[in-house]
Amino acid sequence: MNRRTFLASTAALALLPLSLQAAEPILYKPGTAEADMDGGKIVLLDFWASWCTTCAAQERILAELKAENPAYEQKIAFYKIDWDIYSKDTLSKSLQIPRRSTLVILQGRKELGRIVAGTSKAQIRDLLDMGLAAS
């Protein structure tokens, strides 16, 4: 293999993981998710904390599922809501979020389903599939 071919193939391989990575979820600020919800969009709200091991497990599973099925990111807006900051926020209260590591899928303001502290890949896939079915 000549040097030019090697460099070109190395550069292509270096870019490959970037193209396969799931898009980052939107970090919640008051009003951002609500605007999408009021627009009737499918929204997944991920109430998490940086120190929460269950939240970290859910995050890994969500990333795997989004990589396996690009339709999730095409049809669902993913929001990460920092529990340490927004646990007492209007959105958290209106949805009666009991704790961090809660995933809620909505179509507009209508709740389609939720998982509290669940880390089953099948259960999280089912939740995302509810969103796809509603889109």
From TrEMBL:
Keyword vocabulary terms for this entry: Coiled coil, Disulfide bond, Electron transport, Redox-active center, Signal, Transport
Lineage: superkingdom: Bacteria
Protein name per the record: Thioredoxin
Species this protein is from: Aliigemmobacter aestuarii
GO cellular component assignments: cytoplasm
Record domain Thioredoxin: where: 9-133
Gene3D superfamilies (UniProt xref): Glutaredoxin
Residues annotated as signal peptide: 1-22
GO molecular function, one term: protein-disulfide reductase activity
Coiled coil: 55-82
